[in-house]
Amino acid sequence: MLEIRNLDVRVDDKPILRGLDLTVNAGEVHAIMGPNGSGKSTLAQVLAGRETFTVTGGEVRYDGRDLLALPPEERARDGVFLAFQYPVEIPGVSNVYLLKAAVNAVRRHRGEAELDAMDFLALVRSKMKLMDMSDELLYRAVNEGFSGGEKKRNEILQMALLEPRLAILDETDSGLDIDALQVVANGINALRSPERAMILVTHYQRLLGYVVPDFVHVLSQGRIVKSGGKELAHELERRGYGWLESQAAPGAGSDAAR
Amino acid sequence: MSLPAPKLDDLISREYRHGFVTDVEADALPRGLSEDVVRLISAKKNEPAFMLEWRLAAFRHWRTMTEPGWATVRHPKIDYQDIIYYSAPKSGKTGPKSLDEVDPELLRVYEKLGVPLKERELLAGVAVDAVFDSVSVGTTFKAKLGELGIIFCSFSEAVQEHPELVRQYLGSVVPYTDNYFAALNSAVFSDGSFCYIPRGVRCPMELSTYFRINAKNTGQFERTLIIADEGAYVSYLEGCTAPMRDENQLHAAVVELVALERAHIKYSTVQNWYPGDKEGRGGIYNFVTKRGDCRGDDSHISWTQVETGSAITWKYPSCILRGDNSVGEFHSVALTNHFQQADTGTKMIHIGRNTKSTIVSKGISAGRGQNAYRGLVKILKSADGARNYSQCDSLLLGDRCGAHTFPYIEVKNATAKVEHEASTSRIGEDQLFYCRQRGLSAEDAVSMIVNGFCKEVFKELPMEFAVEAQKLLGVSLEGSVG
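YS: structure for the whole thing
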């Protein structure tokens, strides 16, 4: 579904990703781990189409198409979803308005009829139950005054509504207490399916205790330096990232992602 | 990343869509202003003597005044002798008796603008007193309103048919001595709208006027006078668009509202005049004096405005809260893009006891637009228990625009309560990216964010006008986002 080949990304001429390779197939859940500044969030944002980054080399294929050639909204409509590390506040725009606009943008793209207000409300309420969210969050401005936990739940709610094929979750576990983490993890697990792939970007293995990945990759200095199964996460938890740093040195090569 | 994705900058730099000039034969005076021109205007309009005297007094006063320079706007010096002060579409001496007699070219213009002059207005429940350049072309629903004793007609007609009302109220809210542009308007105003709602009558429909500036180099000097007698209610809509053109045009209108005891006037404006091109060439100078007088106890005047057009906007719809317990409201959205400049706000003058005023101002600046809120809250000694709440929010799109807030507060009564809140925020690429990541186009995202910002004001507009306002905001910002 997703093939990243030799991806180079810069910000203000500073290399962030340096020859990153990764292949993700439908139905798989991949965890991308790594120390701060290794390029995890950059990878997530580049896949979603953030323009503050410059791709200087390599390619990304999504279902065989050149993903990097598409503007962010087309990627989104095509099923690429990013759960933001820091969800953005939009004053005056009710959450329900954005959710409905987003769902209908995707439905239009798929050639499906747009949902009217009644149908949409029924849909969103059923999904909110799953996320243990109160109705009141629908009518508040997007993310404005939401607690950290509410923001992250709201992200997963959007994922549940938009039913993406490739979901990228950027540090979704950060800032969550244990109860909220459980709810968010349940929400993510409920969306696992053979047609859907997920990339979990995370610093800690905490979330991975609830959402068990099929593959774990360690990102360091802009490339994947080690890949393995879920047991790699436990090893990282024990040993930290230090022992892998040397492998990230230029020229060491990466036999990364499968 | 080498994406062809539209940037915020591109979105806010679309061209004005209502740009066209209609080819209508105009009956215009030569350029320039003198006592003779004032006399000529008055004579052309066949005005009674008191009108001519009033115009002449205004003109003489105007000549003693100098143009104000305190607003935070910049423009080349206006040559008042290079302006044509009167132009009317040639339509015979008596004027059209029905739409059939109206120049089809004129009707086509309204058609293009989507102005409902025929059946559509009946469906929409709107009576339109359409002002094309300086003379009213058609007034509708007059008969229906007439049954209730409501007078809704062009100003010229009011001067002919109801001189006693004009004489009593003209200049009673905005005297010709008020300011430079008000004096100029008083001397040369060509036409406008007049509305009188008799005692206890609730006007059953939204009254509306569409203004449109058309003939080249014709300054527009509209005069609007609305009187709500005791216990009356009226909601009045003013909306306008203008054709694309090169030369700067001066627009100096005066609007006077009089609310007697328990009367309620709701005045809503959507203003979309040509703002000039991307380099700031052309565009309309909009120097308007709008003022409402809550003359009676328990009266209520509310101004709601959405200002998206004009090169320069200089406008402070104000309320004089004279009657006890009277209420003044001002809700405003002002958008400046490219090189547009707006210096707008309100004045709330509290005179009566327990008077209340609310100010909600939303300024949006994009491109190199400059947006200033200037507001005065004045509580006089007599105004026991007066209250004011002001909220001024600014939204910046991009990093070359500016927002300024100048709140003036004068309180002479210790029982008054005055609150002021202000905020400035920026539409970030991160908000835009967030929405686009959810599948919204960049245009829809900007429109949604801006409309969210303006929500408190839009909810004050009559329903159909709110839709139009959102559209205009869309057009002004990025194109045809509804």
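YS: worth flagging: Residues 277 and 469 of chain B are 21 Å apart (CA to CA).
IM: good catch. Also The interface with chain A takes residues 1-5, 7, 425, 428-431, 433-442, 444, 448-449, 451-456 of chain B (CB under 8 Å).
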